[in-house]
Design goal:
Elements (H helix, E strand, L loop, with lengths): L2 E7 L4 H17 L3 E5 L5 H5 L7 E6 L2 E7 L4 H9 L9
Parallel strand pairs: 1-2
Antiparallel strand pairs: 1-3, 3-4
Length: 92
């Protein structure tokens, strides 16, 4: 089953703004797409994923959260979390 990576943010969040270029780097490095959702404008996700802070980045497989990273996540940590759940290992 394929994984999805979702990053939740809100307008005016400094950590969220800092997270965006990291997300772009990881997308490019791993050849994946990371979904971005404004948690305030989409409050149903707050309850669904028990969101407490922004940014929050999730690695989801099916309906199950496999990794939860709250706050600003450094590129290396985000890549490592995603790699743990990919179907086939990507070259480094």
């Amino acid at each position: 089953m394929a994984i999805k990576v979702i990053s939740f943010y809100q307008e005016g969040c400094m950590g969220c703004e800092e997270q965006v270029p990291i997300l772009r780097e990881v997308e490019k490095d791993l050849g994946i797409e990371i979904g971005e959702i404004d948690a305030v404008k989409n409050p149903e996700y707050i309850k669904t994923y028990n969101l407490r802070v922004t940014p929050t980045t999730l690695v989801v497989e099916g309906d199950e959260v496999r990794e939860r990273m709250e706050g600003l996540v450094h590129r290396e940590d985000l890549e490592a979390a995603i790699r743990r759940h990919l179907q086939k290992p990507l070259p480094r």
